[in-house]
Specification:
Elements lengths: L1 H9 L1 H20 L9 H9 L3 H13 L15 H13 L4 H7 L3 H32 L11 H29 L4 H22 L3 H26 L1 E8 L2 E3 L2 E3 L3 E7 L6 H16 L7 H11 L2 H22 L2 H10 L2 E2 L7 H36 L2 H5 L2 H24 L8
Antiparallel strand pairs: 1-4, 1-5, 2-3
Helix pairs in contact: 2-8, 2-9, 4-11, 4-12, 5-7, 6-7, 7-8, 8-9, 9-17, 10-17, 11-12, 11-13, 13-15, 14-15
Amino acid sequence: MLTGLKNAFRIKDLREKILFTIAMLVVYRIGAHVPVPGIPFGEMVDLFSGDNSVAAGAMSLLNLFSGGALSYVSVFSLGIMPYITSSIILQMLQSVVPSLHELAREGEVGQTKITQYSRYLTLALALLNSIGYLFLFKGYGINFNGAGAPEIIFDILIVGTLTAGAMLIMWIGELITQRGIGNGMSLIIFANIMAGLPAAIVSSAAEGTVGIVITAVIFVVILCVIPLIVYLERGQRRIPVQYAKRVVGRRMMGGQSTYLPIKVNTAGVVPIIFASALLYFPAQLAVFFPGIGWVQAVAGALASGWINWILNVVLIVFFAYFYTSMVFNPDETADNLKKQGGFIPGVRPGKATAAYIKNALNKITLPSAIFLALIAIVPSIVFSFTGNQLIQSFGGTSVLIMVGVVLDTLAKVESQLKMYDYDGFFK
Protein backbone atom coordinates (compact mmCIF):
# COMPACT_ATOMS: atom_id res chain seq x y z
CA MET A 1 0.00 0.00 0.00
CA LEU A 2 2.75 2.48 0.94
CA THR A 3 4.68 1.56 -2.21
CA GLY A 4 1.58 2.17 -4.30
CA LEU A 5 1.04 5.61 -2.74
CA LYS A 6 4.70 6.47 -3.28
CA ASN A 7 4.48 5.46 -6.93
CA ALA A 8 1.28 7.48 -7.37
CA PHE A 9 3.05 10.69 -6.34
CA ARG A 10 5.97 9.95 -8.69
CA ILE A 11 3.71 10.32 -11.72
CA LYS A 12 3.14 14.03 -12.41
CA ASP A 13 -0.30 13.68 -14.01
CA LEU A 14 -1.63 11.41 -11.26
CA ARG A 15 -0.05 13.55 -8.53
CA GLU A 16 -1.79 16.66 -9.89
CA LYS A 17 -5.13 14.84 -9.97
CA ILE A 18 -4.78 13.65 -6.38
CA LEU A 19 -3.72 17.10 -5.11
CA PHE A 20 -6.54 18.77 -7.05
CA THR A 21 -9.08 16.36 -5.52
CA ILE A 22 -7.77 17.06 -2.01
CA ALA A 23 -7.86 20.84 -2.63
CA MET A 24 -11.47 20.71 -3.83
CA LEU A 25 -12.54 18.65 -0.80
CA VAL A 26 -10.82 21.17 1.50
CA VAL A 27 -12.69 24.03 -0.22
CA TYR A 28 -15.93 22.12 0.23
CA ARG A 29 -15.33 21.49 3.94
CA ILE A 30 -14.51 25.18 4.47
CA GLY A 31 -17.79 26.14 2.82
CA ALA A 32 -19.63 23.65 5.03
CA HIS A 33 -18.63 25.78 8.06
CA VAL A 34 -19.65 29.17 6.60
CA PRO A 35 -23.04 29.98 8.17
CA VAL A 36 -25.95 31.69 6.47
CA PRO A 37 -26.61 35.15 8.03
CA GLY A 38 -29.24 35.31 10.75
CA ILE A 39 -28.91 31.73 12.01
CA PRO A 40 -29.84 31.08 15.68
CA PHE A 41 -27.21 28.44 16.46
CA GLY A 42 -28.59 27.51 19.88
CA GLU A 43 -32.07 26.76 18.56
CA MET A 44 -30.68 24.70 15.66
CA VAL A 45 -28.58 22.56 18.00
CA ASP A 46 -31.62 21.97 20.23
CA LEU A 47 -33.68 20.90 17.22
CA PHE A 48 -31.23 18.18 16.16
CA SER A 49 -30.24 17.02 19.63
CA GLY A 50 -33.56 17.39 21.39
CA ASP A 51 -36.37 14.97 22.00
CA ASN A 52 -38.26 15.73 18.79
CA SER A 53 -38.08 12.31 17.17
CA VAL A 54 -39.87 13.36 13.98
CA ALA A 55 -37.39 16.16 13.26
CA ALA A 56 -34.37 14.14 14.33
CA GLY A 57 -35.42 11.06 12.38
CA ALA A 58 -36.32 12.98 9.23
CA MET A 59 -33.13 15.04 9.15
CA SER A 60 -30.48 12.68 10.52
CA LEU A 61 -29.62 11.05 7.19
CA LEU A 62 -29.53 14.37 5.31
CA ASN A 63 -27.46 15.94 8.08
CA LEU A 64 -25.04 12.99 7.85
CA PHE A 65 -24.64 13.42 4.09
CA SER A 66 -24.02 17.17 4.57
CA GLY A 67 -21.27 16.53 7.13
CA GLY A 68 -23.26 18.22 9.91
CA ALA A 69 -23.70 21.40 7.85
CA LEU A 70 -27.50 21.16 7.97
CA SER A 71 -27.63 21.23 11.77
CA TYR A 72 -26.47 24.86 11.82
CA VAL A 73 -27.64 25.89 8.31
CA SER A 74 -24.35 26.61 6.59
CA VAL A 75 -23.94 27.63 2.97
CA PHE A 76 -23.59 23.96 1.98
CA SER A 77 -26.48 22.68 4.11
CA LEU A 78 -28.22 20.93 1.21
CA GLY A 79 -25.11 18.89 0.51
CA ILE A 80 -24.80 16.80 -2.63
CA MET A 81 -28.28 15.23 -2.30
CA PRO A 82 -30.08 17.46 -4.89
CA TYR A 83 -27.46 16.53 -7.49
CA ILE A 84 -27.61 12.84 -6.61
CA THR A 85 -31.42 12.86 -6.71
CA SER A 86 -31.51 14.59 -10.11
CA SER A 87 -28.97 12.14 -11.54
CA ILE A 88 -30.95 9.15 -10.29
CA ILE A 89 -34.25 10.57 -11.60
CA LEU A 90 -32.78 11.09 -15.08
CA GLN A 91 -31.35 7.57 -15.07
CA MET A 92 -34.80 6.21 -14.27
CA LEU A 93 -36.46 8.38 -16.92
CA GLN A 94 -34.12 7.05 -19.61
CA SER A 95 -36.03 3.75 -19.61
CA VAL A 96 -39.43 5.49 -19.62
CA VAL A 97 -38.95 8.47 -21.96
CA PRO A 98 -37.90 7.34 -25.48
CA SER A 99 -36.17 10.64 -26.33
CA LEU A 100 -33.93 10.39 -23.26
CA HIS A 101 -33.15 6.77 -24.09
CA GLU A 102 -32.05 7.79 -27.58
CA LEU A 103 -29.89 10.59 -26.13
CA ALA A 104 -28.17 8.11 -23.82
CA ARG A 105 -27.25 5.97 -26.85
CA GLU A 106 -25.75 8.86 -28.81
CA GLY A 107 -22.46 8.74 -26.93
CA GLU A 108 -20.68 11.82 -25.66
CA VAL A 109 -23.04 14.31 -27.32
CA GLY A 110 -26.10 12.71 -25.76
CA GLN A 111 -24.46 12.42 -22.34
CA THR A 112 -23.59 16.13 -22.46
CA LYS A 113 -27.24 16.94 -23.09
CA ILE A 114 -28.39 14.66 -20.26
CA THR A 115 -25.84 16.29 -17.93
CA GLN A 116 -27.32 19.68 -18.83
CA TYR A 117 -30.81 18.44 -17.98
CA SER A 118 -29.43 17.10 -14.69
CA ARG A 119 -28.08 20.54 -13.80
CA TYR A 120 -31.43 22.22 -14.46
CA LEU A 121 -33.21 19.59 -12.36
CA THR A 122 -30.62 20.05 -9.58
CA LEU A 123 -31.40 23.78 -9.54
CA ALA A 124 -35.14 23.12 -9.26
CA LEU A 125 -34.69 20.51 -6.50
CA ALA A 126 -32.29 22.76 -4.58
CA LEU A 127 -34.78 25.61 -4.69
CA LEU A 128 -37.61 23.36 -3.50
CA ASN A 129 -35.43 21.87 -0.74
CA SER A 130 -34.37 25.33 0.42
CA ILE A 131 -37.98 26.49 0.70
CA GLY A 132 -38.96 23.20 2.36
CA TYR A 133 -36.20 23.47 4.98
CA LEU A 134 -37.19 27.07 5.69
CA PHE A 135 -40.77 25.99 6.41
CA LEU A 136 -39.53 22.95 8.32
CA PHE A 137 -37.41 24.98 10.71
CA LYS A 138 -40.12 27.59 11.14
CA GLY A 139 -42.59 24.82 11.88
CA TYR A 140 -40.49 23.97 14.95
CA GLY A 141 -40.45 27.56 16.14
CA ILE A 142 -37.11 28.73 14.70
CA ASN A 143 -37.15 32.23 13.23
CA PHE A 144 -34.38 33.66 11.13
CA ASN A 145 -33.96 37.38 11.67
CA GLY A 146 -31.54 39.90 13.07
CA ALA A 147 -30.45 43.52 12.96
CA GLY A 148 -34.10 44.61 13.05
CA ALA A 149 -34.64 43.80 9.35
CA PRO A 150 -37.95 42.34 8.10
CA GLU A 151 -38.14 38.57 8.34
CA ILE A 152 -38.99 38.21 4.63
CA ILE A 153 -35.55 39.57 3.71
CA PHE A 154 -33.83 36.87 5.74
CA ASP A 155 -36.15 34.24 4.27
CA ILE A 156 -35.14 35.22 0.73
CA LEU A 157 -31.49 35.42 1.76
CA ILE A 158 -31.56 31.92 3.27
CA VAL A 159 -33.34 30.32 0.29
CA GLY A 160 -31.01 32.03 -2.20
CA THR A 161 -27.87 31.15 -0.25
CA LEU A 162 -28.80 27.48 0.19
CA THR A 163 -29.69 27.14 -3.50
CA ALA A 164 -26.44 28.79 -4.61
CA GLY A 165 -24.51 26.55 -2.22
CA ALA A 166 -26.08 23.42 -3.72
CA MET A 167 -25.13 24.54 -7.24
CA LEU A 168 -21.58 25.27 -6.09
CA ILE A 169 -21.34 21.76 -4.61
CA MET A 170 -22.53 20.34 -7.93
CA TRP A 171 -19.79 22.30 -9.71
CA ILE A 172 -17.13 21.06 -7.26
CA GLY A 173 -18.31 17.46 -7.72
CA GLU A 174 -18.14 17.73 -11.51
CA LEU A 175 -14.68 19.32 -11.33
CA ILE A 176 -13.41 16.44 -9.19
CA THR A 177 -14.85 13.89 -11.63
CA GLN A 178 -13.36 15.62 -14.68
CA ARG A 179 -10.00 16.84 -13.40
CA GLY A 180 -9.43 14.84 -10.22
CA ILE A 181 -9.38 11.17 -9.32
CA GLY A 182 -12.55 9.23 -8.54
CA ASN A 183 -16.22 10.18 -8.60
CA GLY A 184 -16.83 13.69 -7.25
CA MET A 185 -20.26 13.01 -5.73
CA SER A 186 -19.08 9.89 -3.92
CA LEU A 187 -15.96 11.59 -2.57
CA ILE A 188 -18.00 14.51 -1.21
CA ILE A 189 -20.30 12.11 0.65
CA PHE A 190 -17.23 10.24 1.92
CA ALA A 191 -15.71 13.50 3.22
CA ASN A 192 -18.98 14.41 4.96
CA ILE A 193 -19.23 11.06 6.74
CA MET A 194 -15.60 11.21 7.85
CA ALA A 195 -16.09 14.79 9.10
CA GLY A 196 -18.73 13.66 11.59
CA LEU A 197 -16.80 10.63 12.82
CA PRO A 198 -14.49 12.30 15.41
CA ALA A 199 -17.37 14.09 17.18
CA ALA A 200 -19.41 10.86 17.26
CA ILE A 201 -16.48 8.94 18.78
CA VAL A 202 -15.93 11.59 21.46
CA SER A 203 -19.66 11.69 22.26
CA SER A 204 -19.80 7.90 22.56
CA ALA A 205 -16.65 7.57 24.67
CA ALA A 206 -17.69 10.44 26.96
CA GLU A 207 -20.43 8.29 28.50
CA GLY A 208 -17.95 6.70 30.89
CA THR A 209 -16.74 3.13 31.07
CA VAL A 210 -19.91 1.80 29.44
CA GLY A 211 -19.49 4.26 26.57
CA ILE A 212 -15.87 3.24 26.01
CA VAL A 213 -16.84 -0.45 25.96
CA ILE A 214 -19.68 0.23 23.51
CA THR A 215 -17.35 2.26 21.28
CA ALA A 216 -14.79 -0.57 21.24
CA VAL A 217 -17.49 -3.13 20.42
CA ILE A 218 -18.79 -0.94 17.58
CA PHE A 219 -15.34 -0.74 16.00
CA VAL A 220 -14.83 -4.50 16.33
CA VAL A 221 -18.17 -5.11 14.59
CA ILE A 222 -17.27 -2.61 11.86
CA LEU A 223 -13.92 -4.33 11.29
CA CYS A 224 -15.77 -7.64 10.91
CA VAL A 225 -18.38 -6.18 8.54
CA ILE A 226 -15.92 -4.40 6.22
CA PRO A 227 -14.56 -7.66 4.68
CA LEU A 228 -18.14 -8.76 3.96
CA ILE A 229 -18.87 -5.44 2.25
CA VAL A 230 -15.66 -5.71 0.20
CA TYR A 231 -16.62 -9.26 -0.77
CA LEU A 232 -20.07 -8.05 -1.84
CA GLU A 233 -18.78 -5.01 -3.75
CA ARG A 234 -16.14 -6.93 -5.69
CA GLY A 235 -18.13 -10.15 -6.06
CA GLN A 236 -19.07 -11.23 -9.58
CA ARG A 237 -21.19 -13.91 -11.22
CA ARG A 238 -19.14 -14.93 -14.26
CA ILE A 239 -21.21 -16.41 -17.09
CA PRO A 240 -19.03 -18.32 -19.59
CA VAL A 241 -19.18 -17.04 -23.19
CA GLN A 242 -17.82 -18.78 -26.28
CA TYR A 243 -17.18 -16.97 -29.57
CA ALA A 244 -17.65 -18.86 -32.83
CA LYS A 245 -14.80 -19.08 -35.32
CA ARG A 246 -15.16 -17.08 -38.53
CA VAL A 247 -12.94 -16.25 -41.48
CA VAL A 248 -12.16 -12.57 -42.09
CA GLY A 249 -10.05 -12.22 -45.25
CA ARG A 250 -7.30 -14.77 -44.83
CA ARG A 251 -7.42 -14.79 -41.04
CA MET A 252 -9.36 -16.99 -38.67
CA MET A 253 -11.09 -14.87 -36.03
CA GLY A 254 -12.90 -15.84 -32.83
CA GLY A 255 -12.96 -19.20 -31.20
CA GLN A 256 -11.84 -17.95 -27.80
CA SER A 257 -13.59 -18.44 -24.48
CA THR A 258 -14.30 -15.61 -22.05
CA TYR A 259 -16.95 -14.70 -19.51
CA LEU A 260 -19.65 -12.11 -18.92
CA PRO A 261 -19.11 -10.50 -15.47
CA ILE A 262 -22.22 -9.50 -13.50
CA LYS A 263 -21.67 -7.64 -10.24
CA VAL A 264 -23.34 -9.17 -7.22
CA ASN A 265 -24.28 -5.71 -5.94
CA THR A 266 -25.14 -4.01 -9.23
CA ALA A 267 -27.31 -1.34 -7.59
CA GLY A 268 -24.68 -0.24 -5.07
CA VAL A 269 -25.97 1.99 -2.27
CA VAL A 270 -28.74 3.54 -4.41
CA PRO A 271 -31.57 1.35 -2.93
CA ILE A 272 -30.74 2.60 0.60
CA ILE A 273 -30.78 6.25 -0.52
CA PHE A 274 -34.05 5.76 -2.42
CA ALA A 275 -35.77 4.00 0.49
CA SER A 276 -34.60 6.55 3.06
CA ALA A 277 -35.69 9.51 0.93
CA LEU A 278 -39.13 7.96 0.39
CA LEU A 279 -39.69 7.19 4.08
CA TYR A 280 -38.47 10.55 5.37
CA PHE A 281 -40.52 12.56 2.85
CA PRO A 282 -43.77 12.31 4.90
CA ALA A 283 -41.94 13.68 7.97
CA GLN A 284 -40.81 16.71 5.96
CA LEU A 285 -44.27 17.09 4.45
CA ALA A 286 -45.90 16.98 7.91
CA VAL A 287 -44.41 20.39 8.70
CA PHE A 288 -46.86 22.00 6.29
CA PHE A 289 -49.80 20.46 8.22
CA PRO A 290 -48.97 21.05 11.90
CA GLY A 291 -52.62 21.00 12.99
CA ILE A 292 -53.55 17.63 11.52
CA GLY A 293 -52.92 14.90 14.08
CA TRP A 294 -53.04 11.85 11.82
CA VAL A 295 -50.47 13.39 9.44
CA GLN A 296 -48.08 13.93 12.36
CA ALA A 297 -48.68 10.38 13.60
CA VAL A 298 -47.98 8.84 10.18
CA ALA A 299 -44.83 10.96 9.78
CA GLY A 300 -43.57 9.91 13.21
CA ALA A 301 -44.26 6.22 12.54
CA LEU A 302 -42.46 6.29 9.18
CA ALA A 303 -39.48 8.26 10.52
CA SER A 304 -38.54 5.68 13.17
CA GLY A 305 -39.75 2.51 14.85
CA TRP A 306 -40.72 -0.97 13.69
CA ILE A 307 -42.89 0.29 10.81
CA ASN A 308 -39.88 2.19 9.47
CA TRP A 309 -37.70 -0.93 9.75
CA ILE A 310 -40.16 -3.20 7.91
CA LEU A 311 -40.83 -0.70 5.13
CA ASN A 312 -37.11 -0.03 4.80
CA VAL A 313 -36.40 -3.71 4.16
CA VAL A 314 -39.24 -4.00 1.63
CA LEU A 315 -38.26 -0.81 -0.22
CA ILE A 316 -34.54 -1.63 -0.30
CA VAL A 317 -35.23 -5.05 -1.84
CA PHE A 318 -37.67 -3.50 -4.33
CA PHE A 319 -35.31 -0.69 -5.38
CA ALA A 320 -32.40 -3.14 -5.65
CA TYR A 321 -34.30 -5.08 -8.30
CA PHE A 322 -35.68 -1.92 -9.90
CA TYR A 323 -32.35 -0.12 -10.20
CA THR A 324 -30.55 -3.27 -11.35
CA SER A 325 -33.04 -3.59 -14.20
CA MET A 326 -32.32 0.06 -15.06
CA VAL A 327 -28.54 -0.25 -15.35
CA PHE A 328 -28.32 -3.80 -16.77
CA ASN A 329 -30.45 -4.83 -19.73
CA PRO A 330 -30.35 -8.62 -20.40
CA ASP A 331 -32.09 -8.25 -23.79
CA GLU A 332 -29.54 -5.70 -25.00
CA THR A 333 -26.63 -7.79 -23.68
CA ALA A 334 -27.94 -10.92 -25.42
CA ASP A 335 -28.41 -8.97 -28.64
CA ASN A 336 -24.83 -7.66 -28.51
CA LEU A 337 -23.48 -11.16 -27.90
CA LYS A 338 -25.42 -12.45 -30.89
CA LYS A 339 -24.10 -9.67 -33.16
CA GLN A 340 -20.52 -10.41 -32.08
CA GLY A 341 -20.87 -14.15 -32.68
CA GLY A 342 -20.84 -15.01 -28.97
CA PHE A 343 -23.02 -17.50 -27.17
CA ILE A 344 -23.38 -19.11 -23.76
CA PRO A 345 -22.56 -22.84 -23.97
CA GLY A 346 -25.75 -24.91 -23.87
CA VAL A 347 -28.03 -21.86 -24.35
CA ARG A 348 -29.53 -20.77 -27.67
CA PRO A 349 -28.73 -17.19 -28.79
CA GLY A 350 -31.44 -14.53 -28.63
CA LYS A 351 -34.38 -14.75 -26.24
CA ALA A 352 -33.10 -17.88 -24.48
CA THR A 353 -29.80 -16.13 -23.71
CA ALA A 354 -31.64 -13.04 -22.41
CA ALA A 355 -33.81 -15.24 -20.16
CA TYR A 356 -30.72 -17.08 -18.87
CA ILE A 357 -28.92 -13.81 -18.02
CA LYS A 358 -32.05 -12.38 -16.39
CA ASN A 359 -32.48 -15.49 -14.25
CA ALA A 360 -28.83 -15.33 -13.12
CA LEU A 361 -29.22 -11.62 -12.36
CA ASN A 362 -32.33 -12.21 -10.24
CA LYS A 363 -30.63 -14.96 -8.24
CA ILE A 364 -27.66 -12.80 -7.22
CA THR A 365 -29.72 -9.63 -6.65
CA LEU A 366 -31.85 -11.12 -3.86
CA PRO A 367 -29.02 -12.01 -1.41
CA SER A 368 -27.26 -8.69 -2.10
CA ALA A 369 -30.51 -6.78 -1.51
CA ILE A 370 -31.13 -8.61 1.78
CA PHE A 371 -27.55 -7.88 2.85
CA LEU A 372 -28.05 -4.17 2.04
CA ALA A 373 -31.29 -4.15 4.04
CA LEU A 374 -29.60 -5.74 7.07
CA ILE A 375 -26.67 -3.31 6.85
CA ALA A 376 -29.11 -0.38 6.86
CA ILE A 377 -31.62 -1.65 9.44
CA VAL A 378 -29.62 -3.40 12.17
CA PRO A 379 -27.73 -0.24 13.30
CA SER A 380 -31.05 1.65 13.48
CA ILE A 381 -32.55 -1.07 15.68
CA VAL A 382 -29.48 -1.11 17.94
CA PHE A 383 -29.53 2.71 18.16
CA SER A 384 -33.19 2.67 19.25
CA PHE A 385 -32.21 0.56 22.28
CA THR A 386 -28.83 2.11 23.15
CA GLY A 387 -29.12 5.74 22.00
CA ASN A 388 -25.40 5.73 21.16
CA GLN A 389 -24.62 8.53 18.68
CA LEU A 390 -21.71 6.65 17.12
CA ILE A 391 -24.10 3.96 15.87
CA GLN A 392 -26.32 6.58 14.26
CA SER A 393 -23.45 8.56 12.69
CA PHE A 394 -21.29 5.61 11.69
CA GLY A 395 -23.85 2.92 10.99
CA GLY A 396 -24.09 0.36 8.23
CA THR A 397 -25.07 2.84 5.51
CA SER A 398 -22.04 5.02 6.25
CA VAL A 399 -19.64 2.07 6.26
CA LEU A 400 -21.13 0.73 3.03
CA ILE A 401 -20.72 4.10 1.28
CA MET A 402 -17.18 4.61 2.59
CA VAL A 403 -15.97 1.15 1.57
CA GLY A 404 -17.53 1.51 -1.87
CA VAL A 405 -15.93 4.93 -2.44
CA VAL A 406 -12.50 3.77 -1.26
CA LEU A 407 -12.60 0.69 -3.53
CA ASP A 408 -13.72 2.76 -6.52
CA THR A 409 -11.04 5.42 -5.98
CA LEU A 410 -8.28 2.85 -5.46
CA ALA A 411 -9.35 1.05 -8.63
CA LYS A 412 -8.99 4.30 -10.62
CA VAL A 413 -5.55 4.98 -9.12
CA GLU A 414 -4.62 1.37 -9.85
CA SER A 415 -5.50 1.74 -13.54
CA GLN A 416 -3.44 4.94 -13.76
CA LEU A 417 -0.42 3.27 -12.14
CA LYS A 418 -0.54 0.31 -14.51
CA MET A 419 -0.51 2.68 -17.49
CA TYR A 420 2.99 3.69 -16.38
CA ASP A 421 4.11 0.09 -15.63
CA TYR A 422 3.92 0.50 -11.86
CA ASP A 423 2.61 -2.09 -9.44
CA GLY A 424 -0.77 -1.05 -8.10
CA PHE A 425 -2.45 -1.50 -4.72
CA PHE A 426 -4.04 -4.86 -5.57
CA LYS A 427 -1.58 -7.69 -6.31
